[in-house]
Amino acid sequence: MLYPVDPPQPTPGEKQAAALVVLNPAQSRRLVAKAAVACPIVQKAYKNGMIIIARGITNAFVTEEFFNISIDNKANQTLGFIGQGMTNITTTPPPSTWHVIENGKVIEGADSNVEILKFKKGDVVIKGGNAIDYTGLTGTYASSLKCGTMGMSWPVVTPRGAEFIVPVSLEKMVPCVMTAAQHTGVYHFKYSTGLPAKIVPLPEAKAITEIEAFAILYGVRAYNVGSGGVGGSEGSVHMTLEGDEDKIEQVMELVKCRGHPPLRPGGLRGAQGLSLQKGRNFTLQALGKHQTDEPDLWAVVYPGLS
């Protein structure tokens, strides 16, 4: 579902304006990350509860917004990613280990597998997504036989009334997340360009896209009117913005800041000479078994599947 936001209304007597803006993927990540941190559900948990920030590139931006720090190699904050034409993984540790917050303070050296067991109603997991459809349903790739982050967190978060917040760009729009889920899976593929994976639907998770972000942060209405491009605008989303002219001008100051270069992950695995491999053999030949920094969470397709 989409994060609930009332459509911003024109201020009586204020001059109205509209703008057409193109956001590259990094700009969109920054925007939805800012909104995720600023939204009331997260702010309440930050002050009087717990927040777990899952690994992910968008969540590197979230971490920066929370702690006013800079993470140079944001792409390494994730474990799995799409790069070099493949579903891939990094082999480097995350540059930031500040991922668990309790009552406004970072828990140093925290193990999220342990800390999540303290969760209560209103606590929050912030998790990026790989897919979103027109209903607001989001999905995330999982290659782990234990379903990765979602396998660890969903059974705890859901029954306790905690929250999933998913900052995700409209770049990730697909026709139907449930259809994607039905046609993916670790054992589904004979061939795959990279690591076989499952799209795991995230029911009840609240998605924050550029539309919700512009409303939360600037009080303007946003409409997705196009996408894509060339020359550095691949993956861009095109937005029409409407609202009070002074608010539109504030947005344009953000858009003018083009200091968001494409993200370049380091420490790739399975990147050499692999364009099309048999799905099961791929896990044996290129990836093998690897473990995240969370000891009970195996982000792996185990050897010996064939």
Just give the CATH class of the domain at 27-210: Alpha Beta
Rg (CA only):
19 Å
Q: Give the rounded overall mean pLDDT.
A: 84
> Which descriptor suits the 3D outline?
globular
Helix fraction by DSSP (H/I, runs of at least 4):
25-40%
Strands side by side in the biggest sheet: 6-5-2-7-10-13
First-residue to last-residue Cα separation:
38 Å
Instruction: Bin the strand percentage.
Output: 15-25%
The number of strands is 16
* Stretches with pLDDT under 50, minimum 5 residues: 268-306
Largest sheet: 6 strands, mixed
Structural class: alpha+beta
N-to-C order of helices and strands: EHHEHEEEEHEEEHEHEEEHEEHEH
Describe this structure in words.
- With 306 residues, this protein is of the alpha+beta class.
- The protein has a domain of 184 residues: Rossmann fold, CATH 3.40.50.
- The chain is 28% helix and 22% strand.
- It is built from 9 helices and 16 strands.
- The strands form 5 sheets. It has a 6-stranded mixed β-sheet, with helices on both faces.
- Strand 8 and strand 9 form a beta hairpin.
- The radius of gyration is 19 Å and the shape is globular.
- 45% of the residues are buried.
- The C terminus is likely disordered.
